[in-house]
């Protein structure tokens, strides 16, 4: 039973939505390094499932236009973006001070094609926001995005640029208020920090709290100055199951939607909150996780769905495939179609996996207490704040190529009739490509499995990444307060040990 969801004109929640889905065929080739839990290959596995379940044909499939320097600099510091653009595995030894300064090297390693990877995943999220702003779709999806830990001038938790902040800034050009919801197991610290002092963006994060990366997200952190009460944190403990999770998610999000009345919603669908995640410790089923998507969709407000964490990659692909179906209003069947990564899903070859019998450390009492506290915070927001619009900055016109088209790589420029003709077939250019192909590693549990799944020869043309060739219109600085770092005083609840611990922090 749902509480608080708006009724759709035609009744129940099965009504179709128009979906724009962003995917770059090269994204699966980026490789963080041997043993690193973050595997962009999971995005390609998700895409393969979508293709073989027949879901792509119900969506507009778009290849994102890479975000340019100036797009990234709408949030990030110039010198940080310059650093990301120039650093390579070969030159990093000469840049030790810079690496330290920008927190790049350990959890956030330098790898081949790092900057194009950032441009690609940020391009998808900003592109989704542009589509929503233009009313060209109801829901935009970018499973490669959702990298919520990146800061203005610092990488963090496997994240380099914060595509979510950039997408929200884009949505704010069109919408007075934007809601951000984060169901990754980790606190959405980078996004919260960026909008901590504004009432135009409300951030709500559900996460494991207590001796866990990134250490922030205390229930007492509620925003500052004009942003007071516009940040909500839902601290949870190990083993939370579907029922416990929804006993908080629906009442809280129902109240947020009723009071804040956002013009657009961004939902970060980090899949490390699923049962059995390599780094996570929650016990959600895919249906329990997807219930959050279903619920946010039911409000019929423009919705941007993003990826995030997720380290048991077969379950990540399962989850985001199922959630794409939820977005479309299509219930996909449990029996998995045969496809190039089929071996990952044995022995059952089903979409759904049973949660474990681990202990749920979230007692009823604790959950009730959290819900009461958060609803009390929300009662301070009596009505949606009215926003004095300054002169509205122009839309970012990010051109995107439609994968359905014969030539998916024919990039166009909104400001000119000239076609960008710098295509290079990747298949004939692998040696020169700055993207290393991922050597698919088994996950720890699969180490015994000697069967190796070959990287499919799924190569497509790709336009070169020369930023200086981009000609899309200039972006005018936003009219809201610049996103800023959270003031120190508000961080009083941070655990004292913020030291870097390899791979305990996505
Ligand atoms: Zn995470």
Blueprint of the fold:
Elements: E1 19-22, H1 41-52, E2 60-63, H2 69-72, H3 78-86, H4 96-101, H5 114-133, E3 139-142, H6 163-171, E4 178-182, H7 189-194, E5 201-208, E6 231-236, H8 242-260, E7 264-268, H9 286-297, E8 303-306, H10 313-328, H11 364-379, E9 401-402, E10 423-425, E11 461-463
The structure holds zinc ion (ZN).
Q: Share of helix among residues?
A: 25-40%
- The CATH first-level class comes to Alpha Beta
What's the structural domain tally? 1
- The side-by-side strand order for the widest beta sheet comes to 6-5-4-7-8-3-1-2-9
Bulk shape: globular
Distance between the termini: 33 Å
Radius of gyration: 21 Å
Bound small-molecule species: zinc ion
What's the CATH topology name? Answer: Arginase, Chain A
Q: Order of helices and strands, N to C? A: EHEHHHHEHEHEEHEHEHHEEE
What's the mean pLDDT score? 81
Query: What CATH architecture do you see?
Result: 3-Layer(aba) Sandwich
Catalytic activity: N(6)-acetyl-L-lysyl-[histone] + H2O = L-lysyl-[histone] + acetate
GO biological process, one term: epigenetic regulation of gene expression
Enzyme class: hydrolase
Keywords: Chromatin regulator, Hydrolase, Metal-binding, Nucleus, Repressor, Transcription, Transcription regulation
Written description of the protein model:
With 506 residues, the protein is an alpha/beta fold. It has a single domain, classed as Arginase, Chain A (3-Layer(aba) Sandwich). 25% of the residues lie in helices and 9% in strands. The protein contains 11 helices and 11 strands. It has helices at 41-52, 69-72, 78-86, 96-101, 114-133, 163-171, 189-194, 242-260, 286-297, 313-328, 364-379, and strands spanning 19-22, 60-63, 139-142, 178-182, 201-208, 231-236, 264-268, 303-306, 401-402, 423-425, 461-463. It has a 9-stranded mixed beta sheet with strand order 6-5-4-7-8-3-1-2-9, sandwiched between helices. Strands 10-11 form a two-stranded antiparallel sheet. α8 (242-260) runs parallel beside α9 and α9 packs parallel to α10 (313-328). The radius of gyration is 21 Å and the shape is globular. It starts with 18 loop residues before the first strand and ends in a 43-residue tail after the last strand. Bound molecules: zinc ion. Zinc ion binds at residues 184-186, 270, 272, 308-309, 506. Residues 36-324 form the Histone deacetylase domain. Its cofactor is Zn(2+). This is Histone deacetylase. Pfam families: Hist_deacetyl.
């Amino acid at each position: 039973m749902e509480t608080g969801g708006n009724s759709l004109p035609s009744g129940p929640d099965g009504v179709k939505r128009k979906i724009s889905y962003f995917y770059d065929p090269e994204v699966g080739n980026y490789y963080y390094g041997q043993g690193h839990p973050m595997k962009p290959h999971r995005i390609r596995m998700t895409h393969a499932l979508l293709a073989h379940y027949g879901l792509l044909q119900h969506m507009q499939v778009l290849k994102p236009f890479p975000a340019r320097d100036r797009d990234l600099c709408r949030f990030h510091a110039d010198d940080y973006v310059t650093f990301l653009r120039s650093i390579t595995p070969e030159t990093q030894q000469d840049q030790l001070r810079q690496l330290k300064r920008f927190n790049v090297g350990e959890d956030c390693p330098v790898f081949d094609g790092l900057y194009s990877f950032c441009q690609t995943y940020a391009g998808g999220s900003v592109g989704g926001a542009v589509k929503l702003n233009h009313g060209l779709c109801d829901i935009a999806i970018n499973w490669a995005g959702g990298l919520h830990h990146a800061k203005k001038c610092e990488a963090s938790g496997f994240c380099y640029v914060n595509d979510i902040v950039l997408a929200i800034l884009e949505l704010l050009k069109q919408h007075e208020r934007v809601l951000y919801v984060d169901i990754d197991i980790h606190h959405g610290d980078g996004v919260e920090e960026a909008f901590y002092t504004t009432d135009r963006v409300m951030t709500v994060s559900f996460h494991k709290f207590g001796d866990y990366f990134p250490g922030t997200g205390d229930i007492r952190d509620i925003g500052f100055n004009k942003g007071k009460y516009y940040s909500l944190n839902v601290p949870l403990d190990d083993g939370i199951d579907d029922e416990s999770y929804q006993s908080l998610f629906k009442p809280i999000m129902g109240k947020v939607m009723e009071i804040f009345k956002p013009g657009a919603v961004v939902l970060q669908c980090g899949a490390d909150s699923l049962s059995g995640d390599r780094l996570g410790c929650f016990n959600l089923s895919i249906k329990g996780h997807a219930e959050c998507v279903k619920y946010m969709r039911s409000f019929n407000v423009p919705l941007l769905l993003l990826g995030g964490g997720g380290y048991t990659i077969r379950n990540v692909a399962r989850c985001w495939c199922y959630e794409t179906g939820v977005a479309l209003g299509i219930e996909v069947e449990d029996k998995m179609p045969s496809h190039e990564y089929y071996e990952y899903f044995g022995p059952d070859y089903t979409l759904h996996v049973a949660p474990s019998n681990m202990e749920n450390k979230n007692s009823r009492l604790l959950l009730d207490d959290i819900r009461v506290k958060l609803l009390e915070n929300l009662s301070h927001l009596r009505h949606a704040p009215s926003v004095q619009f300054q002169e509205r900055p122009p839309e970012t016109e990010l051109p995107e190529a439609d994968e359905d088209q014969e030539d998916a790589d024919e990039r166009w420029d909104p400001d000119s009739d000239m076609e960008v003709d710098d295509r290079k077939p990747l298949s004939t250019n692998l040696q020169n490509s700055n993207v290393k192909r991922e050597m698919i590693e088994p996950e720890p549990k699969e180490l015994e499995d000697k069967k190796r799944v070959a990287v499919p020869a799924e190569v497509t043309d790709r336009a070169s990444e020369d930023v200086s060739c981009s000609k899309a219109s200039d972006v005018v600085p936003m009219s809201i307060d610049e996103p800023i770092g959270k003031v120190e005083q508000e961080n009083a609840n941070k655990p004292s040990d913020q030291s870097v611990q390899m791979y305990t922090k996505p």
